[in-house]
Every structure is written in structure tokens, then in C-alpha cells.
Design a protein that fits this description.
3 domains, 297 residues, 14 helices, three-stranded antiparallel beta sheet
């Protein structure tokens, strides 16, 4: 019986009457087992209260999940109603559980405000990634209020994540969300220590054609091939190749480049290239790309 009663979690910071209530119900011997006895531990009891009081889970849905009657769950909540405020405060302040309104927390509100002021609205998607981190959607046994999330909590999350998912590191979009959120709180990862914290800013992918590597010898070889191709010279492919190698512009930008946008002044060639790629958040501004000046030596 002693093994079944796991009452340690928060017992010293929860109302004594509530702890005693849970202990009594777990020890009950005769008759139909009480819902607390079926849950078997203080941790499981608190998890149910998180669902009902913080996550606003309907009693009917929770009763189906637990396999108990709606009335049994209602009576349990009625019994502990006098302790609701104290228990809820404990769950939020001590254990770091969060309610449904993630964006209502001051730290998240400030983060969102900073993103909107920067104009980089595509970064707003990081908020959803951070919400999943804090809610415990990504790692079992890790939940934290965003206001309490700091570098130590980030390291705790990383350690549990790589262990549970059997990965060498946290996925890139999650790492970037954590780094961005910490920076908004003024928490800076020491330069050069990102990898040690498991929060490296290194990209996992550098584009669709990142695998293509051109050495000087290869570039010279392509130039010779183009020189020997009359059709290529007629179509100006040699010029297109030189612009691409020198400016690293996208294919569309080079292909749609008017001759009038190429200027030569004092041994310096400037090219006005139209780059079609835009940020997701700029669509409402009517932006469809931007002209850039490329300097060719």
C-alpha cells in the first residue's frame, strides 16, 4: 500500500487538508474505489486538476478519459472546491503550468509586440512553437510558464527532448523559437556557447541547391563549354552564367533582368536585380519583391 501512495509532489506547499483528503481516499479499502484511489497518486490528481481548472477541459470529456462517471468527477471537484484557489496558485507559480491563453502572459505579449514593431511578421509563427514547448506538447514531463522560462529551463527542455526523441539535437525551428524568445526577455546565450547549451543557431538546411559546389576549375570548365556553344552565345547564356556566379542572384531574377539594368561606370559594373522572394508577413502590404543593386568587380 505504501508503494501506491506517492504523495510527495507538492505535499509541503499544498493545503494540509487537501493532502490529507488525497491520502485518505487512496487508503480506502472497502466499497467502490474513489476517483482519487483510482488515480493512485498526488501527481495524477494534480494532472487532472490542470486539465479541468487550467486547460478548461469539459467535465464530460475528462470523465470519459478517466473512465469514471461525470457525477463522480463532479463530487470530487465539489469536495476540493475550498482549496481551488490555493492549488491553482501552486500549479502556476511553483510547477509552472499554464492556462489556455498563452499569449496573455506578459513575456509573450511583449515578445509579440517586438516582432510586430520589427516588421518581420513571419517570426510570429515562432510563438506557436514556443507555446508547444511550454505546454508540454513536445516533451513528456516538461511544462513551464513562459514568464518563468529562462536559460536553465531551456537546458532542461533540451536534455529531456533529445533523450525522449533519441535525437542528437532539438529540431531547428524549435531551437530558433527558444533563442528568439529568450532574446526578447533579454536573456542572451554567451557567444560561441549555443551548441553547448543545445541551442545552436546553425541551420540544418541552406536551400534546395546547397549541395552544389563549384570550384574555380569547374567554373573555368563551364566557361570553356559555353564559349564553344554558338547557340549558348547567341542566347547570352555566357552573360547569364557570369552574372549568376558573381552576384549569386536567383534564376528568376537573372532571367527577367532587362539589359537597361546593367551599367558600367569607372571599371565597376552595377546590376539592378529584381528579387521576388518576400517574407510571409509582407503580403498584406502589397509587396511583391524588391530591386537590389549588385556590384560586380
Amino acid at each position: 500500500m505504501a508503494k501506491a501512495i506517492q504523495i510527495e509532489r507538492g505535499s509541503s506547499q499544498l493545503p494540509r487538508e487537501f493532502v490529507g483528503y488525497v491520502e485518505r481516499k487512496i487508503r480506502e479499502g472497502q466499497g467502490r474505489p474513489h476517483i482519487v484511489k483510482r488515480l493512485g497518486s498526488m501527481g495524477n490528481v494534480l494532472d487532472v486538476l490542470v486539465d479541468l481548472w487550467l486547460e478548461c477541459e469539459p467535465i464530460g470529456e475528462e470523465s470519459k478519459k478517466l473512465g469514471v462517471s461525470r457525477m463522480s468527477l463532479w463530487r470530487f471537484l465539489r469536495d476540493i472546491e475550498p482549496f481551488k484557489e490555493t492549488i491553482t496558485r501552486y500549479l502556476k507559480d511553483v510547477e509552472g503550468f499554464i492556462d489556455r491563453a498563452f499569449r496573455s502572459y506578459p513575456s509573450v505579449t511583449n515578445w509579440e509586440r517586438m516582432i510586430r514593431l520589427s516588421g518581420h511578421l513571419s517570426q510570429l509563427k515562432k510563438i506557436r512553437s514556443m507555446e508547444r514547448v511550454c505546454r508540454g506538447d513536445l516533451v513528456e514531463g516538461f511544462r513551464c510558464s513562459p514568464d518563468r522560462f529562462d536559460l536553465a529551463k531551456a537546458q532542461e527542455f533540451v536534455a529531456k527532448y533529445v533523450k525522449q526523441h533519441r535525437r542528437l539535437k532539438v529540431m531547428e525551428h524549435i531551437r530558433m523559437a527558444i533563442r528568439h524568445f529568450l532574446a526578447s526577455k533579454g536573456i542572451v546565450i554567451p557567444r560561441g556557447f549555443g551548441a553547448q547549451y543545445g541551442l545552436s543557431g546553425e541551420k540544418e538546411s541552406y536551400g534546395k541547391y546547397a549541395y552544389i559546389k563549384l570550384s574555380e576549375d569547374k567554373i573555368d570548365e563551364i566557361r570553356e563549354i559555353l564559349k564553344g556553344d554558338s547557340e549558348a552565345l547567341e542566347r547570352g547564356y555566357d552573360i547569364v552564367f557570369e552574372i549568376g556566379v558573381t552576384t549569386c542572384s536567383r534564376a528568376f531574377a537573372i532571367g527577367s533582368l532587362p539589359i537597361s539594368k546593367i551599367r558600367e561606370e569607372k571599371n565597376l559594373t552595377t546590376i539592378r536585380v529584381f528579387e521576388p522572394k518576400i517574407k510571409e508577413g509582407d503580403r498584406h502590404l502589397g509587396k511583391v519583391g524588391m530591386w537590389w543593386t549588385k556590384y560586380v568587380p
